[in-house]
Amino acid sequence: ALYVVNIERNGKIIYTWKGNQRNTHIGLYDLQTKQNEHLYVFEKDLHIISCSVNNERTLLAVSFCQYTEEERASQLLQSVSKYLTLLIEIHPINNVRVLKAVDSSVRVQFLYPVEGRSSSTKSRLLLVSEDKYIEQFDIRVVVEEEHKVVIQRPGQLPRAKVVDDLVWAQWDMMEQRLFYIVPKESKSTLRCVQFYPDENFNSILESHLDIAVNDKQLKLVNFGYDYCQDQDVASKSLNLQVFTSKAGGLCMCCSLASDIPHEIMYSIYFLHKGYNKTFTVSLERTESHQLKEVAFMNLDYYVAAYLPGQFLHLLNIQHPDLLCYSLFLTGEDARIDTLQNCSIRSPWVSTALDCEAGSLYDVSISDSALLQFLQKSKRDYERLAALHCALLYFQHTEDLEMQIIQWISENMSTCHSFDPIQEFIIASLYCRMCPETQNLDKLLPYTSLHDWIGVVPGVICATDIISLPVLEFQNSKGFWEKLNSNLESVKYAEPHLHYQSNVLRKEWRNLSEEVRNILFGLLFSSFCDFRLFTNQREERRTTAYLRNIFENAKKYVLARLVPLFEEEDYQQQLLMGLMVAQLKDHLMRHLQYVGKKKIDQIVLDYVANLLNLVHRIMKEVWRRYQLHSCVFCFDEKGSAGEFAVFHIMSRILEAANGMCMPLPPGFHTLHLGLGVRCLPLHTLLHYIDNGVLQLTETCVRKLLKDLDDTEQNEKLKFSIVMRLPEALGQKVRQHWNHPINANLIARKYVKLLLEKLGNRQCSRPIPERLSVPVEFLPLNYLTNMLTEIENQGVHPCEKQDHVNARFVEETALKHTMTLLGLKYS
């Protein structure tokens, strides 16, 4: 049988096996080349405890047990140490040096330099003693005749004490770190030593824990694998592991004793967040033969807590505050076929070692299985966790996005505690933007939820505040720099660092009213013309700010979009520009070192990607229901597919309003067009009155021009026209050639003309008696008065030349003749 005894940093596996004559062989397997290499053989049956080979494969360190307790009892007169630790020259096989001959077990581990470094004549070896200390040996080699490598001065190997009085230690082979725990009164202290390529090492981290570890036997993690000894130690020591993530996460996982037979307890210390969560899990089945110890695995973004046959919990490291972003799987969903009822270790990220079988596995979350789980899930916490995992754990692909959008369109009405559209947009933006700039993940929102008060069946979670770790060595790079940034954000700012839309919503409402007044004052001339307002001293400051906001939207954001319809939507442009301005201010406060140009690019990318995501949802929904341009033929009723798309667009609008999020140009026009086709008149008007549907110039103009004037259509047109905002009404009413509309236009004209007369304090004209074709004295008087006012240069409808005093006169006569039942000619 083969037994895995160690895995080195370069991924090479050291294993042992017994030969035909009961010789003990040591071999090396290369995961990259799939090649085996024989390293050494002992011509006797030995129990290898620990083994390590240096990076150049010139030295082999071996620790083994010379005999069992029964063999020692039969050799009472011999005074021989039980454990022997050897240093062997293997290039070629030559001298053997005894490093330790003691009665306590020893583990060995060579340090490895950074990848790509050329061969060195110096190696460093860690010796970890069962007597609770670790020391480092410095070993120099020289090359003699024909590439023969031998140890220089083997009798005088320099050594240094690394740590003393420890009760637990873990080796991080990939990053060359040593985590260890030392007892301290009623509590314990977790520390970390970082080993560097320049042959130095520093104590870099200290964290005080509320774990009592006194009188516990030494437990070693990832210092080789001796299954028999590890099983014996496991019952007397801590089941504890430390995991790190690329984003600067630092977690400590610990199994806890439970007095209740059918319960399992474990804690996850999120050291980079300053709290720990203790989980109490009620087991579905309590067969006596099943393992009762939780195995922990590092998946970088998640920590997996796995009890074969019972549960698989994927606990979010980066965003652990809300339980709904962790996956709690049971039954068949929690089954890992190759890891059933076995002792599991996690040597490095996304790997699992079956210590009994000696099998090493890559461990990852299956995207297809996750999507299947999302499809069949009925509970909100499961859906949230699966959706979050799909959007933030996996790399974004067009196919994955399409499947998620399809799921959202089918299930948006069944999600009660969250809005799936909001989650999709915010999480997608977070995933796309954060890799671009360091610390951006602390400033952009990753969820639409502020809190989650749901429960996970069978799982009780208790949260406790713990002290933050202290970094003892400053100006470190890589992981330690990211961890320090995480600790600083928790210490001083979190959760207030994340961008929120509360201020944006308030300012948008205020400025929307400002824009509405300006546009009404200009009778809806193009917005460029609103610069005329800057001549008024009291409006100058507000108008300059508004101009800048609109230029942000037009010049930078809209220029990068493919609109649903080409139209001017000033409300959405205002919201886009405001979001650009406020998000820029937010990032400038916290990312000053990045520079203004880079922040401008981040902000514009964020808003443009936001609008493109909505466009992407629309595109997928449009394609799914096979809609085409006929949605703007108002003489037909909408199909079932159109109604489904209308419902989805209504939910998109609701999601956008909830987040104060802009929508792409043409969205409201398309939404209104579908509403006209799909809804009965009273429902359509109800949606308009309640702000669900917004009247746009493009859609209203087409509706007034394309529909004939049947009784039903007249009722629709009149209802729409009466609900138009003042400025928009002035623009589009001219496209409906109908007495009712002409009457409305005439009334508005007279009202505006008289209001302007009052504002200008003109002297009231005294009309002369003019010869007019119709002798209708009240109308004659009004017409003459309006003509005189127009002659003074007051004309409220400069863009509508046909609307004048003569137009008012003709409209009044037509309306009167119609009321009298007479024919006008």
From TrEMBL:
It comes from the Eukaryota. Residues 611-718 form the Gamma-secretase-activating protein C-terminal domain. GO terms for cellular component: trans-Golgi network. InterPro entries: GSAP_C_dom, GSAP_fam. GO terms for biological process: positive regulation of amyloid-beta formation. This is GSAP protein.
